[in-house]
Amino acid sequence: MRLILITGKGGVGKTTMAAASAALTAGQGQKVLLVSTDRAHSLADALDTPLGSEPVEIDAGLSALQVDTQASFQQSWAVLRRYLVDLLGSGGVDAMAAEELTVLPGAEEILALLAVRDQAASGRWDVVIVDCAPTAETLRLLALPRALSWYMERILPTHRRMVRGLGPLLGGVTLPGDGVTEAVTQLHAELLGVQALLDDHGTSVRLVLTAEAVVLAEARRTATSLVLFGHRLDSVIVNRLIPGGGDAWREAWAAAQAAQLTEVEASFPGLPVRRAAYLAAEPVGLPALAAIGADLYRNGDPLAPPPPSVALDVRRTPDQDGERFELFLPLPHAEREAVQLARSGDELVLTVGGYRRLLALPGVLRRCRVTGSDLAGGRLRVVFRPDPDLWPTS
Ligand SMILES: Nc1ncnc2c1ncn2[C@@H]1O[C@H](COP(=O)(O)OP(=O)(O)OP(=O)(O)O)[C@@H](O)[C@H]1O
Ligand SMILES: [Mg+2]
Question: How many Å lie between the centroid of ligand 2 and the Cα of residue 96?
């Protein structure tokens, strides 16, 4: 199954491009599900059809659903979230992790992930296309399963010990009953399932932008964050391109956009950059959306396999000072000032522009110290040398 997550800055045309891609793909004979996570119901407006929380067939091979944020889940997530925050804040987890609490997302976001996972697991679809929230929320969402699993693996043992041994109150944290333990355990298992889906080789992210400097700058930062978290960016869609010709105002916009388009091509080497014209009217309804889709993918397959995700590359490179290892990670567009590196036990903590990734170090590097790092040609290099305290000497 192919899972395509469509994101981009607010208002650039994510919903329109998600629907256009889905309409075209269904027309090509695939069984397609279009999922919206937007509470504003824009997808229903774009399709001009009411949607519910279960898939509704809106055309041959094309179904759509609107993730429903049920009140009951909202409440139970609020309780769980409060509990996790209190527990971490009370000192169970180190300061770095506690700082991360601010990024715990809301119920809608979790529900969206779980709904997508359920649909993917149903076996009903060849393709699931998700009309995501604007970039920042989407990135938070994509990072969530891994981050939350990391906490849970540390919290749960502590929690169980506390429940068993220490009574209902510890350090100001009120311990809930076993129901919460079960809920946290279940959520953990579900998030692992979501993570497996996000890591699947059929899953990719498609970025929508407009040909404007500010929008491109954000898209470049998004591309960096996606790589940081190991997600695959499969292509870029530049929307609202103003056709040239006509009056001076229109000519000026067309020229400015053409210049930005060159920048877009240079920013995403090796990736298809697709284009959509600024239409004279809002594209509403399936025929209009399918026409955009046909134009968008006239030179390429909307389901082309995504490029492989970039993995950590570790090399042994001894030099005159002795044993040495280098770890490489591509970080396109990242600027030196935005990158922070720290070591926490067996993990490397990499922060890029406010997004943090914990990278589990391979065995050999756990016995090393970080002795240097640099960022050149869109690639981070971290130098490790054996830690004499941990390295067996013969
Ligand atoms: N190429 C286009 N030509 C004309 N109108 C367009 C085009 N693309 C999108 N629109 C219109 O622009 C508006 C915003 O588009 P859309 O809802 O797809 O953006 P979005 O990125 O999903 O927004 P949000 O961030 O609010 O979810 C809609 O009214 C849509 O019909
Ligand atoms: Mg939208």
Answer: 34
